[in-house]
């Protein structure tokens, strides 16, 4: 089992504290089934894979992949970038990468930067080879505003209000917890490269089987006319609680 990156250098007043969902992603990405898939999907003679994590939070997932690129992909030449709507996360992520160097005598991936932005909006079309997203998936009545006005208004509010706002961004998913995730999936065809793969975390309340079927049948077309057909497979699970599977990792690819 690969070591979990340390986050002892961080405080978690404004960013998401790694929890069960985070560790499920780490375990899934480093599982034999996924390291085999990734090494075969991105063999050494092919172009360098570009990995994008959306909503990096503490940076623990990207740090993990950067440090253990050779183990996970069977090649160290990864380029990694992260985005997050919170500038606190954009500062935390590179710090976590620096605090978690690769094992001795082992090459690592190349971490490029962490951008403060919405989803993958700065990316050129079709450049992302591996997309990783642990979204705000908790069903809520509303999703916090993420406009520039919303952020500028924070300067007039208490530190408690600011902390509450940023933490709400990490979990509040709107109806069925899918508000933000649906936006990502609507634009997935434009984001992923022809060989692109998405690793997406969903909880039981997100109705993951319905999401998977919608992807398989072209139900995520941004213009409403129907989208591409995707392969979808559940590749990780948190197990059962009271008869319900709480969290799952789903792999989506062309």
UniProtKB/TrEMBL annotation:
Entry keywords, A to Z: Methyltransferase, S-adenosyl-L-methionine, Transferase
Q: Which domain of life is it from?
A: Eukaryota
Task: Check the record and name the InterPro entries matching this protein.
Answer: DNA_methylase_N6_adenine_CS, Euk-Arch_PrmC-MTase, SAM-dependent_MTases_sf
Instruction: Give the UniProt entry's GO cellular component terms.
Output: eRF1 methyltransferase complex
Does the entry feature the keyword rRNA processing, yes or no? no
Q: Which GO terms describe its molecular function?
A: nucleic acid binding; protein methyltransferase activity; S-adenosylmethionine-dependent methyltransferase activity
One biological-process term from Gene Ontology? methylation
As for family, the record states:
Belongs to the eukaryotic/archaeal PrmC-related family.
Q: What is this protein called?
A: Putative methyltransferase
Native organism is Terfezia boudieri ATCC MYA-4762
Taxonomic lineage:
Eukaryota, Fungi, Dikarya, Ascomycota, Pezizomycotina
């Amino acid at each position: 089992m690969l070591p979990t990156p340390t986050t002892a250098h961080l405080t978690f007043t404004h960013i998401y504290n790694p929890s069960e969902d985070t560790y499920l992603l780490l375990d899934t990405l480093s599982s034999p089934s996924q390291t085999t898939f990734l090494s075969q999907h991105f063999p050494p003679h092919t172009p360098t894979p570009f990995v994008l994590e959306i909503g990096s939070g503490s940076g623990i997932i990207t740090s993990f992949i950067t440090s253990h690129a050779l183990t996970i992909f069977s090649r160290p030449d990864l380029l990694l970038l992260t985005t997050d709507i919170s500038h606190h996360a954009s500062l935390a992520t590179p710090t976590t990468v620096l605090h978690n160097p690769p094992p001795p005598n082992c090459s690592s991936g190349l971490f490029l930067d962490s951008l403060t932005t919405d989803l993958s909006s700065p990316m050129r079309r079709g450049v992302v080879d591996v997309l990783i997203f642990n979204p705000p998936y908790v069903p809520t009545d509303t999703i916090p505003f993420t406009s520039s006005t919303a952020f500028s208004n924070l300067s007039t509010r208490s530190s408690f209000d600011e902390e509450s706002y940023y933490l709400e961004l990490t979990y509040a998913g709107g109806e069925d917890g899918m508000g933000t995730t649906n936006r990502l999936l609507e634009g997935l065809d434009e984001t992923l490269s022809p060989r692109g793969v998405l690793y997406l975390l969903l909880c039981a309340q997100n109705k993951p089987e319905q999401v998977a079927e919608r992807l398989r049948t072209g139900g995520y077309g941004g213009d409403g006319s129907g989208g591409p057909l995707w392969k979808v497979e559940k590749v990780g699970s948190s197990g059962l609680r009271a008869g319900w599977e709480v969290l799952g990792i789903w792999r989506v690819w062309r």
